[in-house]
Amino acid sequence: MSNLQNNQGQGQPPNRFNQAPQVNQADIQALTAAVQALTGQMLAPNNLGNAMNTLNATVAANNNALQNRNHNVAQVPTFNGGNQDPITWLNEFNATATANGWNDARKLQVVPAYLKGPAAVWYQAAVLAPINAWAAAANVNNFEHAFLTRF
């Protein structure tokens, strides 16, 4: 018999190097149940299908927005003021914006590029008011109202 075995019987601490750690069976069962429930939810056909549909719709919308931002289907005419008809120009601008997939916020971003001469000078002064919407009946600080009032 080795000295270690002899010492264990004589009040010495046992050799714990070869002993497996104690496992709490309740904890293992709870963790196993939680993993199975989570895996089951993620793999359920409806949940997985819904997640994929949402992901596909989000990716498609993002791709469309990027394409519309970088590629215009129709060209917007410029507006100088003078003897140009502001209603006709505004209708053409809105039709072109619709064709290009622009929302009202995008219209506000791009409209200054299409205003030239006196119209551009007016716009620079008008944005100090500020113009904060494209077209809103309850908001007099919208572009369409300010534009048609001026021209």
Provide a compact summary of the structure.
This protein is an all-alpha fold and 151 residues long.
Please give a structural write-up.
This protein is mostly helical. The protein has two domains: 25-65; 77-150, no CATH class. 60% of the residues lie in helices and 0% in strands. The protein contains seven helices and no strands. The chain has helices spanning 3-8, 25-43, 45-70, 86-100, 104-110, 117-126, 143-150. The model has no long low-confidence stretch (mean pLDDT 75).
Task: Describe this protein with a few key phrases.
60% helix, elongated, 151 residues
Tell me the layout of helices and strands:
Elements: H1 3-8, H2 25-43, H3 45-70, H4 86-100, H5 104-110, H6 117-126, H7 143-150
